Amino acid sequence: MHDSQLVSRFLAGDLEALGVIYDRYSLPVYRYLSRLVGTTDAEDVLQETFIRAANRLKAYREQERLLQWLLTVARNVALDRLRKKTYLRKRFRKYWRHREAERKSVLPEAQQHTQETKEKIDQALSKLPETQRSVFLLREEAQLKFREVAEIMDIPLGTALSYMRRATENLRKELKGQQL
User: Of 141, 142, 134, 140, nearest to 159 (Cα)?
Assistant: First the structure.
């Protein structure tokens, strides 16, 4: 069934249509969110995204891809969450480092190596300015076209391309010399 039909069914009161939308798009939205806000918060932000999307589905335009629209909602929810967490993140940083060290000590060596590589990449991503990180993740994780990224971010296409170039350069610099 096409996305626009599912939206119409949901707006007509069919709750199962929202379940189909969730089943179809929760994984790509989750992947994007886990890289944007981290795996700890990604599930909560995903749920909030679909709640907010359900409440605002009347605003969805059929010309737009539903995934693109959902990623825009997800980005806004994630940014709201990140703004609220900034204070807490600074305050509890020391605590999280301690917990992470404990967790690493119990992982098998091969799994720990893979996890360490992912953590290095995630750490490098977290150092990017929010706009560069968002463009990079929308392009690479969600595999959207640059035009779609620009629409979600509400920026000109050239700016999206520029942010992607800068993000790639900054990631290369940050990861240079590290064994991945």
Answer: 134
8-66, pLDDT tens digit by residue?
999 999 999 999 999 999 999 999 999 888 888 899 999 999 999 999 998 888 878 89
Helix axis angle, 130-140 relative to 66-106, nearest 10°?
Answer: 100
Burial state string for 32-48 with b = 16 or more CB within 10 A and e = fewer than 16: bbbbbbbeebbeebbeb
Nearest-10 Cα torsion for 103, 108, 114, 119:
10
The per-residue pLDDT for range 97-147, each reduced to its tens digit, is 555 555 555 455 555 557 777 788 888 888 999 899 989 988 888 888 898
Domain at 107-180: CATH architecture: Orthogonal Bundle (1.10)
pLDDT interval class at 69 (50, 70, 90)? very high
**CB–CB of 43/84 below 8 Å?**
no
CATH classification code of 1-106:
1.10.1740.10
Q: Where are the domains of the chain?
A: 1-106, 107-180
Pairwise CA distance, residues 139 & 153, whole Å = 12
- How far apart (Å, rounded) are the C-alpha atoms in residues 6 and 18? 7
CA dist 154 and 40 (Å) reads 27
